[in-house]
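Notes from hallway chat w/ T.B., transcribed later so I don't forget. T.B. wanted the structure written out for a chain they're using in a teaching module, and asked if we could keep both sequence and structure tokens in one place. Agreed to drop them here.
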Amino acid sequence: MGMSTAAPDADGPPAARGEGSDPGDRSRPGIAATIGNIDAASDEPLLRAGIELAFEAVATELRAHTPAATLAAAWSEVLRHGVGAAARIGSGPEAPQWAWFVSGSGARGEAAPGSDVETMVVLADAVDEDAKTALLARAADVHALLERCGIPGDANGVLASRPRFCRRAGSWAEGIEKWTAHPQDDRGVVMTGLLADSTAVWGSLGVADDELRAQNLTAVTRNYPVRQAMLQDATAMRAHFPSRLRMFTTHADAVDLKLVAVDPVVKIARWAALSANSDALTTTQRLEAAAVANVLDADDVSILLDCQQWLVRFRWRIRAAAFLDHRRVSDLVSLSELPPQERATLRSVAREVAGISRKLTYLASTSAFR
């Protein structure tokens, strides 16, 4: 798009204004103002126009060095309202008996440029098999609409168009009991984590925004095995930061930022909040709740909060250029292309997160969290 991709600045102006943040351009709406256009959209062209306006507002805020955390929260809101509007448009005038939920970073208010959306649907128990089959097809149409509007569906398949994530209310309740009691079966840890992040965005059932999240928290509180399994999953090292020697000898300097640092912080915070019987959604709120409940050491919480804040800023910076040019974004980072200070900070963040993960693994082996 030929626009500046300067990094969001922690000291910049707020994004949620009803006018453009660029002093030289007051004709463009701020991100918050574009939400109304998305909510009012009655067809695909209007929805596409509303989301494009939101995209342009994000570009304006990036130029204005708006804090990355503010951008993440605002863009997450755009994604949630976009899914809700698409579900409403896709439902048609007959308003089928379903409620749409989102999960993942968009639900937590932590979406990065190019983030996809994870969706789930609750159907009324009265919906029969033929009607469910039809609604699965309609859910696929909703996601196709979102794709055309520039909001991709989850690459790992957490989509309301799949039977696993499109269930009657009773089936969700049964699944929650099963996944939390036997987390080693049927991807119980993954499902519990998705439900912990869930929030409703549109529906005709009248369910609460936290319907699935509240049921999930109640079941997790009763079942120690799922909390144990979630901690094991959170502290499992799925990627490693390459040593300086390895970089020198093999020239292998690529790091997957999401695997090495972002996911571990998010998962530790999620586990800690659930262990504290907290329904907090954002990673920051979850860590703070864990500190209050003494689930996590106060020093460790302080470190993880610092890491989280830096990672949000860094992730927005490295993804901004591709996002603004409508190109594919990636969390793969070439260390040799980073400025030395930024490379050193990333290495320090990864080391801190890995150290806390090892500590939690040890404490879990002593039954400290039972």
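Follow-up for T.B.: Residues 298-324 form the longest helix (27 residues). Might be a good example for the class.
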